[in-house]
Fold this protein.
Amino acid sequence: MATDAKPKSVQLGDPITVTTTISGRGNFDRVNAPLLEDERGWHKYPPSSKFKQDDEVGISGTKTFEMVVSPNEKKQSLPPLAFSYFDPTKEQYVTLHSEPTAITVQGSATAPTWPPSNLLRRQLQQPGPAAGSKFNQAAGHSLSTHRAFANGWNI
């Protein structure tokens, strides 16, 4: 199993393409993509795959997987990938592990604030029905009610 990731330096949330190749003999139609051993802090997209056969029957060859991941937080490495298969010679399942891949993730996540003060300020400054209009009288609103609401938001 061979693994590579590109690019190795990204901004927070940028995509990284992880390429893994599995070579050998077996039923490659049933071979699934390796998995990240630790998915915390990563957004992962479904992998794609392609197979290059080395024989006429299609039992020997290389299957290449491409998986796109994007970091949700600062990271220094891509976690190892794990790939499990059944080894008929050993008559048991075997799990291969890649090495962590060094990467650089720059940037920072900022928590959104609610309500967005500029949006709320614009809504409160937009002209609405006049204080004495039929709309406000029917709804039981007055200009002082609107001011009290605005003051509740400390604008």
Summary: DSSP finds three helices and twelve strands in the chain. Residues 20 and 123 are 52 Å apart (CA to CA).
